[in-house]
Amino acid sequence: MDPKFKQNVLLFAEVMVPDLHQNASLEYSFIKNFKQLFQGLEKDSADKIKLLVTLIETMSFIYNFRSFEKLNYENRKKFIGRLYQFPVGKIVAGLTGLRSLILISYYGIEEVWPNINYDGPIKSNI
Amino acid sequence: MTMDLVFDIVVVGSGVGGATFTDYLTRGNPDLKIAIIESGPYRTKEHFNQREIDMTALYYNRGAVLAKNLQLGIAAANTLGGSSAVYTGVSFRPPINVMENWKENYGLNFLSDVYVSKSLNEIEEDISVHELPKSLDNENNKLFQTGAAKLGIPIKRLKINTKNCEQQGFCNLGCTTGAKQGTLEVQIPRVLKRGVKLFCNTKVTTVEENKVNVIVNDAPEGTLSNTLASGTHQFKAKKIILAAGVLNTPAILLRSSDKLGLKNKNIGRYLTLHPAFNINGIHSKTITNYRGFPKTVYTDHFSESDDFYLETSFYFPGVTAKNNPGHGEMHQEIMKNYDKMMSILILAHDKAEYHNRINIDKNGKTVVDYTLSKRSKNALVKALKEAAKIFFAAGCIKVLLPASRKNPLLKDDVKELDRYISKKYLNLYKTPLSSAHPQGGARMGINDSTSVCDNYGKVYGTNSIYVCDASLFPTSVEVNPYETIMLLAKWVAENMMELDK
User: Fold this and answer.
1) Fewer CB within 10 Å, N side or C side of chain A?
2) Any A CB within 8 A of B218 CB
């Protein structure tokens, strides 16, 4: 996974799931899961996600006069909030798709399960 | 690796249509040389590990094949056993009014009450369809009944096809104990014993009369290995049965149109998706609904008046998180209540419309061209309101909806649901609208100007090619479709050889 793409996905993910912010262990597990999901996507879908992340980066310059990674956490939250109001439906759909991948990746982390009182797989049967 | 790839019958797809067809055909014709071609990997119950991240690999595109307009994602299985490997096993007979419509308007007169009833009695017995006893209802199913009863909404019990179900709740990630009586457990082992050959990771590119052109891909790590070398191959057969599912069967026909000389404008058309929302409420008490059988009750109370069913359901954390609205702190706080969540599945009946279709792009890849109708939007909005009422009546303190002006809705908001939930707030680019029941695209009917296949499943304009999956449905069956697919598969198998005599 391209480092810049990975970094921007992580920054976006921190806004979706604030507990990821500055938590190295969760970040590591999250990226591992995200990579597994992303690599299993069909090429068309993976390309659309990559394009979206590039677009987020570009729009950050337009809206904020600075790169996405240089926005502080609060400004990133505000910026993503604005993106969700963007008038082009397919861009909003892209954000929704990226959000889905992020949430499935995050809640697939075993370390997170106690926080939501999920016991996980029934181990005796595996 | 070389292999004789000449067969009497080649069946494309190992799901409910293909495996049921093969089972019935081999019962009376033990000498036929048959191959089943499956695009997905060879996995059995031993390969299922109940982990959401890993098990998304059982689906095309990790669980969401997106419509062209990006407003809906289709969950379709890409593994041995097809959808039957990942369905919940909810077993519905086709509604009488749908069968009447298929007879009257599409000439499918074989679907007499007697034939349908006799066939489904036999099928249901074979795959252990039964009602789960009330004693096995988990809290979600009990609360749905409580809420519906308070509102005077009649409920019905669902039938499922399991044997010795251990109530793990992981049906959609593959059943680790083999309790679910899908084709992985019933038909596939049976036909393999009868000598049918199975080729996994084998994707059909095109078909010609008596020929199936395929690409064999490497078996993914951790799955059973291939019997054919990776690369292109051609199978030869007297008859070819397309049962590759609605995302694939019409696409194969479209890719093959030139080779087959097909000019039928209906190929791929009249797609229906049974669009669905899965929504959650937060109860005041801990209810651990991720254990137990997810679905035991439903209501069809709104089916005729408002075009939807409500079924119970429950999903794993990632899918649940995706289905809940919003993001950030608010969303995270909601997820901390995962063990207090109650869940309802909304299924809207959509009409078969010419413009909704499976198409192919310039590379021959499937394109799902589907626009949700105004009528379906109305159905979804009405269903969201009714489901919200059930949640609150069942004791939920918060309700989370994809088309609400306010999230979460609180108990007092129930008086003003019309104000909060409306089509105005249904932004399909933001909502997790999904489908697990695609139907149509190679509709069956006696008129070749409005259908793709005749009433025996044979593709009009061909000599050797048949369809045997939900693509055959002339309209939406309006319920979970697998029993209806089996019914048609049985019919096609019973008649195909007879017609040649």
Assistant:
1) C
2) no
User: How far is the CA of B434 from the CAs of B31, B237, B437, in angstroms?
Assistant: 43, 37, 9
Query: The tokens 């069967």 sit on which residue?
Result: B249
Nearest to B317 among A37, A96, A107 (CB): A107
Point out the residues of chain A with pLDDT beneath 70: 123-126
How close A82 gets to chain B, by Cα (Å)? 13
pLDDT tens per residue, range B331-349: 999 999 999 999 999 999 9
Q: Give the CA distances from residue B336 to residues A117, B244, B288, B401, B407, in Å, rounded to whole numbers and listed in that order.
A: 7, 40, 12, 17, 16
Q: Where are the alpha helices (DSSP H) in B324-445?
A: 328-335, 374-393, 417-420
CATH architecture of the domain B6-128+172-271+436-500 equals 3-Layer(bba) Sandwich (3.50)
- In sign, the C-alpha dihedral spanning B442, B443, B445, B451 is negative
Q: Are B60 and A122 within 8 A, CB to CB?
A: no
d(CA B490, CA B26): 11
Q: Is B285 on the interface with A (CB under 8 A)?
A: no
> What pLDDT is recorded for position B388?
98
Angle in degrees, CA B167, B171, B174, rounded to 5: 125
Confirm or reject contact between B59 and chain A (CB < 8 A).
no
Whether residue B344 contacts residue B387, with contact meaning beta carbons closer than 8 Å, is answered with yes
Cα radius of gyration (chain B): 22
HSE (side-chain half, CA atoms, 13 Å) at B283: 23
Contacts with A, B 338-367, CB within 8 Å: 338-339, 365
Going by the DSSP 8-state scheme, the letter that residue B18 receives in this structure is H
Please name the residues in contact with A54: beta carbons below 8 A apart, sequence gap of 6 or more.
none
**Looking at the predicted structure, is the pLDDT value of residue B384 above 70?**
yes
Rounded to a whole number of angstroms, the distance from the CA of A68 to the nearest CA of chain B is 17
- The answer, for A84 touching chain B at a CB cutoff of 8 Å, is yes
Domain ranges of chain B: 6-128+172-271+436-500, 132-162+276-349+373-427
For A12, the token pair is 């976006």
Sign of CA dihedral B148, B307, B315, A83: negative
* pLDDT tens-digit series, residues A99-118: 999 999 999 999 999 999 99
Option in B70, B327, B338 nearest A90 (CB):
B70
Q: Does A25 touch chain B (CB under 8 A)?
A: no
Asked if residue B81 lies in contact with residue B183, where contact means CB atoms within 8 angstroms, the answer is yes
Taking an 8 Å cut-off on Cβ atoms, the answer to whether A18 and B329 are in contact is yes
Domain definitions of chain A by residue range: 3-117
Token pair, residue B106, equals 């599409």
Token reading at B197: 């050959």
CATH architecture of B132-162+276-349+373-427: 2-Layer Sandwich (3.30)
Would the CATH topology of B6-128+172-271+436-500 be identical to that of B132-162+276-349+373-427?
A: no
Percent of all residues in chain B with a pLDDT value above 70, rounded to a whole number: 99
What pLDDT does residue B288 have?
A: 86
Select from B54, B70, B362 the residue whose CB has the most chain A CBs within 10 Å, as the one to mutate to test that interface: B70
Looking at B258-304, which runs of residues are DSSP E strands? 276-283, 297-299
